[in-house]
Request: fold
Amino acid sequence: MLVSAKEMLNKAREGKYAVGHFNTNNLEWTKAILVTAQECNSPVIIGVSEGAGKYMAGYTTVVAMVKAMINELNITVPVALHLDHGSYEGAKQVIEAGFSSVMFDGSHYGIEENIEKTKEIVALANAKGLSVEAEVGSIGGEEDGVVGAGEVADANECKMISNLGVDILAAGIGNIHGKYPENWQGLNFEALSAIKDAVGDMPLVLHGGTGIPEDMIKKAISLGVAKINVNTECQLTFAEATRKYIEAGKDLQGKGFDPRKLLGPGFEAIKATVKEKMELFGSVNKA
Ligand code: 13P
Reply:
């Protein structure tokens, strides 16, 4: 069964740990994330970008696959299926398709339009029991075609958006998707404290979880971050493991590679990355 992310994230914020949001792209990544969450006895959020949703044939296919896997793999830890950086249209589609959580990213609109559209998504999502993540101050870098300038969110705007009935808030604090540049200034904890003061108990989201030093991750959790998104690190370890396997050339004389064996090392690599993050975020044994 899929659950909304609301309860698991409120528990995480109270318990001062964070639940990992891991983006998926296919069956292997999904299975690796689910199996690891169960092994770690950790709640988990499976993130799906709009591009990944299209790649996997559409949102209803994703819902069917994740639900069936939870059932067939006997996954008993809480799992939320969440749209990552949803557009207004995409958010409406996943609410219909059976996701249990949705991010509406209105950060590229002016604040008035972000408020209007977020309100509409909250009403639609609430009617079906989904949790809603909103965004203020765009996250830097590029994520599946969505490009953000890397702003620091305004605490007043965060307050306005958090008052709309959203459950989770992503606020830019100098974090960016993908690898951090050499000259990165680090997370802006002053901004994070101001946002936390403005929004009170709302669980906050740290996007761009790849490459943030451990001490910054821990400090962010102590300041109200309860959900941390990771994608690039899985992508890097998956690609590296697959590349090594191909280079080692264990093919089936004249029949190419066994597709299941070809993706096996990548599957194990994602499992290892997810486990490492769950340990760092403190969500192990919190299911
Ligand atoms: P990274 O790709 O930097 O890990 O960020 C993932 C993310 O924030 C997804 O929304």
